[in-house]
């Protein structure tokens, strides 16, 4: 509470936030971590490519992480952070809890690890298969669709680069534009790559719900598309606007939080890690960024007389 000045408050308890919290606790830093909202990969059947944890369920990975943080002396509170403000040099105030009944906490440093939200398809059947045979990340789940029939729901300038990545694993790809217009140049590129295109509006997804295996995409008109998996790329949004109240600037190339080589944002004392920064959006990368942020936060708190 207000009578305790934390060395760092970590907002977000995904791989980035928990990794940072663990390192900070091991540095004997007084650390408070706020845990709230569902993780971005909540529906995934497993975390892929995380060395030593390949295939682990996301919730299990995070539960292990929370346990490791608390065993090292870190404090984790399940609450929603509603606002963060700078109240003095090297002093930030965090408001958390029910709106209008906030508890207040103060820290010398703040780490934002609040992540992104994916814009998801609005069609019947999506939730039944999401994370098992419907995916959003080729880097995470491309290997699992090797040589399979894959539908890709995307439009605008995202579609062709996204499909180009998926061609690493399969050549059986059909683009679904969901009644959105496809740029003429993109149509020519897709034809060169032998990628089929369906332009009808998507009406729903069907398959074996018991095994969560997608089998076909339904359209407003025309025959269904038989497929083994679907990837979508409809964009993302930052999960919170805490960076705005703090005055952190965004990277103009991707509209994610700009950070320097130490994971510090444009606001001194405020750091960021994970999917909200302009790097690969993988759990293992987020964890690495959280660790690096913690190292630099710790170093920034070392008294001047102990630095050399």
Q: What is the structural class? A: alpha/beta
Distance between the termini: 34 Å
What is the element string, with H for helices and E for strands? EHEHEEEEEHEHEHEHEEEEEEHEH
The parts where pLDDT drops under 50 for at least 5 residues are: none
Overall 3D shape: elongated
What do you see in this structure?
The chain is an alpha/beta fold and 308 residues long. 24% of the residues lie in helices and 27% in strands. The strands form 4 sheets. Strands 1, 2, 3, 4, 5, 6 and 17 form a 7-stranded mixed beta sheet that branches. Strand 1 (5-11), helix 1 and strand 2 (31-35) form a beta-alpha-beta unit. Helix 1 (15-26) runs parallel beside helix 2 (58-71) and helix 1 packs parallel to helix 8. The longest helix has 19 residues, at 283-301. The two termini are 34 Å apart.
Produce a short descriptive summary:
The chain is of the alpha/beta class and 308 residues long. It has helices at 15-26, 58-71, 126-129, 138-141, 159-166, 184-192, 242-246, 283-301, and strands at residues 5-11, 31-35, 75-78, 81-88, 91-96, 103-112, 116-118, 134-135, 150-154, 173-176, 196-198, 202-208, 213-219, 225-226, 229-233, 236-238, 270-272. The chain contains eight helices and 17 strands.
Tags for this model:
alpha/beta; 5-stranded parallel sheet; 308 residues; single chain; 7-stranded mixed sheet; 27% strand; elongated
Set down the secondary structure blueprint.
Blueprint (H helix, E strand, L loop, with lengths): L4 E7 L3 H12 L4 E5 L22 H14 L3 E4 L2 E8 L2 E6 L6 E10 L3 E3 L7 H4 L4 E2 L2 H4 L8 E5 L4 H8 L6 E4 L7 H9 L3 E3 L3 E7 L4 E7 L5 E2 L2 E5 L2 E3 L3 H5 L23 E3 L10 H19 L7
Parallel strand pairs: 1-2, 1-6, 2-3, 6-17, 8-15, 9-10, 9-15, 10-11
Antiparallel strand pairs: 4-5, 5-6, 7-16, 12-13, 13-14
């Amino acid at each position: 509470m207000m009578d305790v000045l934390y060395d760092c408050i970590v907002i977000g308890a995904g791989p980035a936030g928990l990794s940072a919290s663990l390192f900070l606790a091991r540095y004997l830093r007084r650390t408070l971590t706020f845990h709230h909202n569902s993780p971005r990969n909540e529906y995934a059947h497993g975390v892929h490519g995380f060395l030593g944890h390949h295939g682990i369920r996301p919730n299990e990975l995070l539960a292990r992480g929370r346990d490791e943080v608390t065993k090292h002396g870190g404090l984790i509170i399940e609450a929603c952070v509603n606002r963060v403000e700078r109240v003095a040099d090297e002093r930030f105030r965090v408001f958390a809890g029910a709106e209008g009944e906030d508890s207040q906490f103060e820290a010398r440093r703040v780490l934002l690890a609040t992540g992104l939200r994916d814009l998801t398809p609005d069609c019947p059947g999506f939730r039944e298969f999401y994370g098992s045979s419907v995916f959003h990340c080729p880097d995470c789940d491309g290997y699992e669709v090797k040589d399979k029939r894959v539908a890709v729901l995307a439009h605008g300038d995202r579609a062709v680069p996204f499909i180009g990545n998926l061609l690493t694993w399969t050549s059986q790809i059909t683009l679904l534009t969901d009644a959105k217009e496809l740029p003429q140049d993109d149509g020519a590129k897709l034809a060169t790559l032998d990628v089929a295109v369906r332009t009808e509006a998507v009406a729903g997804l069907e398959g074996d719900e018991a095994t969560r295996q997608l089998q076909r995409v339904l359209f407003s008109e025309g025959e269904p598309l038989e497929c083994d998996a679907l990837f979508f790329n409809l964009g993302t949004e930052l999960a919170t606007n805490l960076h705005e109240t703090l005055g952190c600037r965004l990277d103009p190339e991707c509209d994610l939080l700009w950070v320097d080589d130490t994971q510090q944002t444009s606001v001194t004392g405020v750091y960021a890690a994970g999917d909200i920064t302009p790097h690969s959006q993988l759990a293992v990368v987020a964890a690495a960024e959280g660790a690096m942020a913690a190292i630099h936060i710790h170093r920034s708190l070392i008294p001047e007389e102990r630095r050399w």
